[in-house]
Design a protein that fits this description.
Blueprint lengths: L1 E2 L5 H12 L5 E4 L6 H5 L3 E4 L5 H15 L4 E4 L6 E2 L6 H29 L2 E6 L12 E2 H19 L4 E8 L2 E2 L2 H4 L14 H15 L7 E2 H13 L6 E4 L1 H25 L7
Parallel strand pairs: 1-2, 1-4, 2-3, 4-6, 6-8, 8-11, 9-10
Antiparallel strand pairs: 5-7
Helix pairs in contact: 1-8, 3-4, 4-5
Length: 275
């Protein structure tokens, strides 16, 4: 099993859960210095920047050399980032897609030949509730998670005849360092921005949504348990929603319709009328 993005959060919790369940786990991260706990837990550790082609290919080759194929790939590595569309530099958009989408596609491409030869395998893509309902300032993060919805739907029927399964895990808000780690991928703060108040209100909403004890917020272990459930299922489901946000927000969005949802979001995140 190869898990990406294991230095903290969902990736770290997933690697631990799989190792404790008795699976051989290769835990990877861009900076492997943070993988000591996983090494002690019995994981093999790899340095893997998922945006680096040589690193991607080397990681897959190492796992295949020992096991014949990557039995399970957990595409967890990714980062957030976003702001008002008018202000988001295209460089940040490209960077976020490079990590959250293009790297996922390439990792799938690299493991699929071995899985096909073995006629078995499971690809677990880590999506988000933000791929179901776009949060405020969701460009580009939510856009990448919507892309994983489509990628997983496209891939699933293509590889099913080879005995390969594809599943998408869709967590709601999770208490991890994800928000802090995503700060470098935000547009620079600008007090003169016409969206300054809006962005401040979005930040307050996000802080409330991720705080300890907030209703519906998940721990990394909660998401890892869902991933373990998918890995151990005889036939993994196409999607696993983790947490009430992922289950309820799409229902509310559908019931309210476009106008109703936009009005709800304006109440949730106030945006004073421009003067």
């Amino acid at each position: 099993m190869l898990v990406t993005g294991c230095s903290s959060g969902i990736g770290q919790a997933t690697a631990l859960a799989l190792a404790r369940a008795g699976f051989p786990v290769w835990a990877s991260a861009r900076k492997p210095g943070g993988l000591a706990e996983l090494r002690r837990a019995g994981c093999r550790v790899l340095e893997l920047d998922v945006t680096d082609e040589r690193a991607r290919a080397d990681a897959v080759r190492r796992v295949e050399a020992e096991h014949g194929a990557v039995g399970v790939l957990v595409n967890n590595a990714g980062h957030g980032g976003g702001g008002p569309v008018e202000e988001v530099p295209l460089g940040i958009v490209r960077e976020t897609f490079e990590t959250n989408v293009f790297a996922v596609i390439r990792m799938c491409q690299l493991v699929l030949p071995g899985m096909r030869a073995q006629r078995s395998g499971l690809i677990v893509n880590i999506g988000s509730a933000a791929g179901l309902v776009t949060p405020p300032t969701g460009c580009p993060y939510a856009m990448t998670k919507y892309a994983l919805e489509s990628l997983s739907d496209a891939l699933r029927p293509e590889v099913a005849p080879f005995g390969i399964q594809v599943t998408l895990v869709q967590p709601g808000a999770v208490r991890t360092r994800f928000m802090a780690n995503s700060e470098p991928h935000q547009p620079e703060a600008d007090g003169d921005s016409p969206y300054a108040v809006y962005k401040a209100n979005v930040a307050k909403m996000a802080a409330r949504a991720h705080r300890e004890g907030a209703r519906g917020v998940l721990g990394a272990d909660d998401v890892a348990a869902v991933i373990l459930k998918a890995v151990t299922a005889p036939h993994a489901k196409a999607r696993y929603k983790a947490g009430s946000q992922a289950r309820l927000a799409p229902v509310a969005r559908r019931v309210l319709g476009d106008r109703g949802w936009d009005a709800f979001m304006r109440r949730l995140v106030p945006f004073p009328a421009p003067r």
